[in-house]
Amino acid sequence: MKPTSLAILTSAAIFSMSWAMPALADVDYHIDINQPTHHLAQVSVSFPQSDSDVLTVNLPIWRTGRYQVLPVADGVRLFKATDNRGKSLPWKRTASGEWQIALTKPTSVKVTYQLHANELGERLRHIDSSHAFLDASGVFMYSPEFRQQPVTINMEVPEDWKSYSGMDKGSTPHSFKAANYDVLVDSPIETGINQHVSFEADGRDYDVVFWGEGNYDTQKIVADLTKISGQASAIWPDYPFKRYVYMVHATSGARGATEHINSTIIQLPRFNFREREDYLRFISTASHEFIHTWNVKAYRPQGLVPYDYQSENMTDLLWMAEGSTSYFQNQLLLRAGVITAKEFFDDLSQRIVLNQHNPGREVQSVAEASLGQWSSTWGDYAVNHSVNIYSEGYLASMALDFSLLSDTQLAHSYRDVHKALYQQYKIPLSYNVADVQSILKNLSGKDYQSWWTEYVNQPFSLPFDDLLAHAGLITTYGKSPKTEVDAGMMLSGLYNDLIIASVLKNGPAWNAGVAAGDEIVAVNGLKVTADGLTKRLNDFNVGDTIKLSIFRDERLKEVSLLLTEQPKGDLSIAPVDKVTDAHKAFYKAWLGVEWPFNDEGEWINTTD
Question: Could you tell me which residue ranges the PDZ domain spans (predicted)?
């Protein structure tokens, strides 16, 4: 639906207005978490007086940070609307997330409904006997007529619960207030039995809230978050918030994270914090979401401003919103000393390998992937015909960074692009492709339209060694690289079965006619197991033809598969043979830290 003239103003615009506005009546929200064991709550919303014939009430059909339509309204039952005298008002359901209430005269309106909240992994809403996580997009309805009115939220929760949010506190320990619905919808609430730690970094206040038992080290996490939170000045000149809340869920399996204007929610299985590999996954996610506070929340592409909560918000720049955030996340960790240079490049090496094993990079551009994000799916087809706005967006950002560093003789980097976007296009403004290209031209003096065509508007494959050579680096499988057989297929990894999850396009299995969903039962007539398949394949040599026995649609089928070769071992990044001062200067301009190798080409610091 079309927003009203007031609805197109975001919270940032409201806060920045210096001219007088008439007083606005509050929209009052109340949630009674009265049956937490059954994931149920009772919600009421009191809207100010409306002079319209129909009051439209909505629940968003998607949540910010997740660019896909979700069945959000399915959690609503027992919807009811009453007027200022408590008299029932007639209403009808007109869309997935829309109710229309008929009014015969001006009146305030109270809407009540039962809410079911058991979508923890969606980071949308979750209520149980120990806590409630409430993202307003899945909990609190709004009316476009009153979208810009101030809001108050009052909660009735069990006595021993504590409540936290990036919003300002209200008059009670379990109440909050916000300038409007747009602030509310981007300020989730964590209430329940939790641990809480506060810290300060670079003049800003931070809270860390932990829910769930797990093997996390609160002291280490807080220490590292403090280091990260002080690194923002490497890209941006100031902060779009005064206080920020890190919410951490130690779960029974749910994982993921979502950014918000003043907070983030990060989820990991409860015992996936302690091992270094697990911890790096957690802390890099925290860095990613923190960066989003600028990139996406403080400035974002056209199509995402203002948010339309009732339909898809299309943009061809999601790769910058998400992929560039992924590109910067470990740079901040490296600058902060939270990760080592070796850990930084181990991550980059893995990204390179994943890209090289993704046939979709030859099919889809990052611009097309951005537009297709709302309907994107996982699986075999995606691997072979799609790219990811996060991973390939990272690589497009890297290519742009290296191009800008070279074109400006190290005077400017991709960080300066995002600094300019923040300074020139803060919400309620937005930027488009022409704006980004204008910034690039102002920084470099060169026209980037042809670069954009090559790396954004059409599929690309990066010459990684040519790029990394600018920084005195090269990819390698070791001084004496070895190879092993490659069948070009991946198992699902579920239930220890031999069901094929994906077959790489134009690889050995693809050319043999093997398809995703096939079940392998034997190699050369001998039964195999999921654990033993790789070992069995390695009994053969590159160039051998093997016979695979597979079940497809419950029929036994036999195919011949010619094994090809692939590098054996892990790809790593190492210094070139002759490192120059120019290499070291490029490296420092790129990452903001000193050269990480000694004269023998060994890492100077490989410890935590």
Answer: 474-534
Cis-peptide, bond into residue 481, ω within 30° of zero: no
CATH number, domain of 200, equals 3.30.2010
Q: Determine the pLDDT at residue 306.
A: 96
Backbone angles phi, psi at 405, to 5 degrees: -60, -45
Residue where one domain finishes, among candidates 137, 156, 190: 190
The total number of structural domains in the chain stands at 4
Separation of CA 512 from chain center: 37
Query: Taking a C-beta distance cutoff of 8 angstroms, is the pair 584, 472 a contact?
Result: yes
The values of phi and psi at residue 382, to 5°, are: -65, -40
Q: Residue 92 contacts by C-beta under 8 Å, 6 or more apart in sequence?
A: 99, 100
Beta-strand relationship, 243-251 and 204-211: parallel
141 in the same domain as 113: yes
Q: Whole-angstrom Cα distance, residue 349 to residue 198?
A: 35
Q: DSSP per residue over 129-143, as a string?
A: SSEEEE-GGGT--B-
CA distance 287 to 282: 9
Residues 424, 333: one domain? yes
Query: Token pair of 88, please?
Result: 């029932």
Note down the domain range covering 438: 320-477+572-591
Residues 393 and 494 in one domain: no
Read off the pLDDT of residues 128-171 as tens digits, 9 standing for 90 and up.
Answer: 999 999 999 999 999 999 999 999 999 999 999 999 999 999 99
Give SS3 for 195: strand
Name residue, tokens 């909560």.
Answer: 309
Q: Is residue 283 within 8 Å of 338, Cβ to Cβ?
A: yes
Q: Which residues of 327-366 are buried (b: 16+ CB within 10 A; e: fewer)?
A: bbbbbbbbbbebbbbbbbbbbbbebbeebbebbbbeebbb
- Helix, coil or strand: residue 243: strand
User: 23 pLDDT band (50/70/90 cuts)?
Assistant: low
Mean pLDDT of 302-317: 97
**What pLDDT score was predicted for residue 25?**
77
Q: State yes or no: pLDDT of 584 exceeds 90.
A: yes
Structural domain includes residue 291: no
**C-alpha to C-alpha distance for 500 and 482, rounded to whole angstroms:** 26
Q: Which residues are bridge partners to 552 per DSSP?
A: 555
Decide if 537 contacts 523 (C-beta within 8 A): yes
CB half-sphere exposure, 117, CA atoms < 13 A: 31
Give exposure, 66-100, as e/b (b: 16+ Cβ within 10 Å): bbebbebbebbeebebbbeeeeebebeeeebbbbb
- Sign of the C-alpha dihedral, residues 381, 383, 388, 392? negative
CA nearest 217: which of 272, 267, 263? 272
Torsion of CA 568, 572, 574, 577, to 10 degrees: 20
| 99: its two tokens | 């109710």
The 3-state DSSP composition of the chain as helix, strand, coil percent (nearest 5) reads 30, 30, 40
